[in-house]
């Protein structure tokens, strides 16, 4: 399934449950938000999105602890979790998605392998984080990350 189909399913479920989502994107650079706003009626379920590409932006806008970034690396389950919890709080939404990863072509400053991605989905009660190891070029890794974010959101909405 492609991102457009997955995004439509997410918007439909969010409407059904009367939930509002907020998004914090790093490697996906706004791709998730774009797919959502392409769908008519998205304004009923999409609060806001942040593209926080730099470590500074993650700390400033999403309340990610710079010490965690320094110790665990920006591409880590801990940072993904803090990004999701941060955007949930800042946007005062019901549910939140966050992505962080290495799209390539080079590893990050911690030597994290290209294609390593963490996606988090936070609710008021819990945070779910998944680790992925995608293959392909920069564009393919970003697209796979976007699709996987929607799949995670659908899984969490089923609970």
Parts with pLDDT < 50 across at least 5 consecutive residues = none
Approximately how much beta-strand content do the residues carry?
Answer: 15-25%
H-E order: HEHEHHHEEEH
The number of strands is: 5
The strand line-up of the biggest sheet is 2-1-3-4-5
Q: Which of globular, elongated, flat, extended, rod-shaped describes the shape?
A: globular
The Rg value, from CA coordinates, equals: 14 Å
Task: Provide key terms for this protein.
single chain; alpha/beta; 159 residues; 6 helices; five-stranded mixed β-sheet
Can you give me a brief rundown of this structure?
This protein is of the alpha/beta class. Helices cover 46% and strands 21% of the residues.
What does this entry look like structurally?
- This protein is α/β, with parallel strands linked by helices and 159 residues long.
- It contains six helices and five strands, in the order αβαβαααβββα.
- It has a five-stranded mixed sheet with strand order 2-1-3-4-5, sandwiched between helices.
- A hairpin with a 3-residue loop joins β4 and β5.
- The longest helix is centred in the C-terminal third of the chain and has 21 residues.
- The protein is globular.
- The model has no long low-confidence stretch (mean pLDDT 97).
């Amino acid at each position: 399934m492609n991102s457009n189909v997955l995004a439509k399913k997410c918007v439909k479920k969010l409407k059904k449950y009367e939930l509002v989502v907020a998004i914090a994107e790093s490697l996906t650079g706004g791709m998730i938000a774009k797919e959502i706003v392409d769908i008519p009626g998205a304004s009923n379920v999409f609060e806001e999105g942040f593209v926080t590409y730099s470590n500074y932006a993650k700390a400033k806008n999403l309340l990610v602890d710079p010490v965690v970034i320094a110790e665990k690396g920006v591409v880590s389950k801990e940072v993904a979790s803090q990004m999701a919890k941060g955007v949930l709080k800042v946007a005062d939404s019901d549910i939140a998605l966050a992505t962080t990863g290495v799209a390539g072509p080079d590893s990050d400053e911690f030597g994290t392998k290209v294609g390593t991605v963490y996606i988090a989905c936070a609710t008021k009660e819990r945070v779910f984080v998944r680790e992925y190891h995608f293959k392909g070029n920069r564009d393919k890794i970003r697209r796979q990350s976007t699709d996987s974010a929607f799949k995670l959101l659908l899984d969490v909405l089923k609970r």
